[in-house]
Amino acid sequence: MHPVLRAAADRQWGLFTAVDARRAGYGHDEIRVLCRTGIWVRLRRGVYTTAERLGDLGGRPHGVDCLAALLLLDRPETVISHGSAARILGLPVWDGLERTVRLTDPHQWRAGSGFRVNCAPLDTHEVVRRGPFRLTSVARTLVDCAREWPLEDAVVALDAALLAGRTTPRELSRVAAAQHCWRGAPRARRAIGLADGRAESPLETRGRLRIVGSDLPSPDLQVEIRTGPRLVGVVDAWFDDAAVAVEFDGRLKYTDPWGDRSPGQVVWEEKRREDGLRALGIRVVRIADADLGDGWPAVAADIADLLAAPGPAVRRFAATPRTRGRLRTA
Length: 330
Prior knowledge:
Low-confidence stretches: none
Shape: elongated
Radius of gyration: 25 Å
Distance between the termini: 40 Å
Strand order of the largest sheet: 13-12-11-10-14
Number of domains: 3
Number of helices: 14
Number of strands: 14
Mean pLDDT: 93
């Protein structure tokens, strides 16, 4: 590849345009031969990359399609947004999210093959750059998604971003206030109202929403149980009056444990921790992903029964909610 074209591709995640190619001396017939022989790959009209680059990327990730659409439009005001921005930012996305590239432009609405441009205002603080990508900020992306996604999926994404410190409730509220009359704005406000950055996994978020929707009291989250200075354990959810702890048991905790622990070690530690809680008169409920489906009414009824009975008359422990969740790392 000509050094001039290589430089252009390096600036654009390995993508380049027909204009870039002609600037480097490639003619139309030569471009067509390179594509026909599989050396170059046509992504969109006038937008290309090399087969080698796609191989390095392990296929054709969504970011390639997003950047190809931006290069096609060639408008500096247009940014990647909505679910497309969520994917590039590494936020949890709704399983039913379509592959259509979502873009936003403050002056133009447009739809094309595989992409859609929304015409909407963009404040300067709502636009960020990640390498070659121009996209909406984390807060703007989350609010845009929350206006369209199912409520539960939106709260999962909000919780994950708050836990990681990638946005704040204040930033989310500011963006939502600016969109107060937009389509889906009430849905976004409901999702923001339910978000809590102390949830440390999607299962904890979904489980909390099931509890909230079952006419049960709202539990405290990430509560430290101590006897004197000794930390017995941190429970995912806590009903203080009844001294009932809820633990959300994701399979990943055991199949791919964090902190260089073996699955067997995790099982043993979980058993010891639960034994310690029960020895203090604390009732423990464990909830797995499967419990959130058709069997949830029975789980909710069990929790309600436990909450109807008082906790220990004499408490030999202190329960203190944490102000923030802790992001788990390998």
